[in-house]
Structure formats: structure tokens, C-alpha cells
Design brief:
321 residues, TauD-like_sf, TauD/TfdA-like, AlphaKG_dependent_hydroxylases
Amino acid sequence: MEFSCKDFTVGKCQGQKLVDGETMPLVLQPPEADKADIDSLLSVLKTNKDWFEQLIIKNSAVLLRGFDVKNAQDFNDIVEAFGWDDIRYVGPAPRTHIYGRVWTANEGPLSEFIYYHHEMVLIKESPKTLLLYCEVPPPEGGETPFVPSFRVTERMLEEFPEAVEEMDAKGLQYSFTALSKNDTSSMRGRGWEDALGTSDRAEAERRAKALGMGLEWLPNGGVKTVLGPRALTRVFEGRKGRRMWFNTLVGMHGKELSSATMADGAEISEKVVKRCEEIIEEESIQFKWEKGDVLFFDNMALLHGRRPSLPPRRVLVATCK
């Protein structure tokens, strides 16, 4: 699909890359200065809804820049303009509800790097689209780097074909330990009560089971979640048959609160994990946030993270089916 829409002009941003013929992120700007207001933007998004949805899948990342998106309410209006269903976030990141379908992104310390991941990759149903809005750009750092997932699979297959196929055939098993209450001093500090929306253990077990998680209760009131088997790679409809690196192997392998093994309990080579980490970083795409930016990610196609940042930084998020 060639780019063709009179309601946007194509711009550029620092850090853009051309990946297999696709510009990531594709930057869309107002065609004229008097078309930058939020009402004009909402109108063109609704008019071009189907075209825009296909553009997200084609380019994986689409950045709206130069529009007058002032606050969380404006951002929520953009989310609502597409009519996509909401999907409740389930995961370790501490977050706060702001307005409508808008939440804060991970509230963990800005000094920490949030490792690359597909949103809610471990849950049975992951968001199709992830939307991010920059309300306050950081003075330094704080980028949201992202990685075309298929490139990781391609390169891992080139270097470790047998290990990749074994992990894919067996599947992966993950574990993660969470406290009862939230701990915002940690980027993985969301408590199980908040994550599962209940303080009742029996109800928590029921909800966890529906999400494909097993729970093991700990003496300190915390819980160890066990998830698996989960796929290493996946192919999603409409994305050129690309084999996505749809896992969180590197992010959870051998960490203090988490683990990643093959589903049969076999350990995964440290050499394989380390090289995968290097490949992900080599394939990453960086861009600098500007105030008012709205970024659309195809969550099926992209890993994303967060660079350490100087304060202040405020990026809001919405997740959609």
C-alpha cells in the first residue's frame, strides 16, 4: 500500500529507519497549519479509519507529530475515534488511571531501563495496538525504543537455528514473583492485588487461570506466577508471514524476580540469551519525544522499551484489542 492521503503530509524524525522497505516510525503531520487542531485531527482519523489501521500494520509504527494534542482528554478522544475495544492491562508495571481509557506508562524509577517487550506477551490475549502520548518530553534520555520483532527471529535463526527451533517446538515457561501491594520504587513493582483486581485469593486464582497463569502463594503474602507453555515465535495474519520474536525470554531469563526456561524445565543457554540481547539492541530504533506526539505501535510486530531518563517525563498509554 503506497502512502496516499490528502489529510496528512509525511515528515521525518531523528532515528527513523527503513526496514524491509518500511519507514519506522512513519511520521504524519498536518497538511496545513490551520489543520493542526484536535477537532481537525479527530475528523480525519474517523474519515480515514480503515486506511489508518492498515497503515499501522504496514509500517508497524506511526507517529502523529505537530498536532495540538494538549492533554489526556485529547489523547483519549484519539483513542476513542477508532472504536477499538479496550483491553485491561495485566502485568508487573505500576500504573495509574488518568482519564477514560488513558493510563500512565510504567511509573517505575526513570533512572531504570525498561527492557524490550511486546505488551502483555505472556497473557492469552495481547493488545493489538498500543498508543502512547507524550505530555511532558524528558530533558534528556527517556526514549521509547522499539524493535521490528521479525528481524530478531531472522538473525537468531541465522546464528542459532537448532536452539531456536528447539525452544519453539518445546515452548517456554516463565515465572515471576510479585508482592501483595504495589511498590512504585520498582519498575516491576505492581502487586498481585492491583494486577488481578482483587484481594481475595480464591478470586485471584480464578482470574489468573482465565489469563493462563498458575499461582503459588508465598509466606510473605506475595505470589509466584507460573506461565507456560508459551510460544517463542508467532506468525500473525496480514504481516507478510513474518515470524515474530513474540516472547520475553531475554527480559525474564535469570533475573532476581523472574525466570525463563523451556517448558519441559530445560535450561536455556546463557550464550544464546546474551547474543539475543545484543541483536535486539542492534536492531532497535530510537527517536526523541516531542510534546504532543501520539505514537501507534502494532503490538504484534514490535518490541518496545524505555531508556533511562532525567525528570520530568510523562508518557501516557492506552491499549486496544
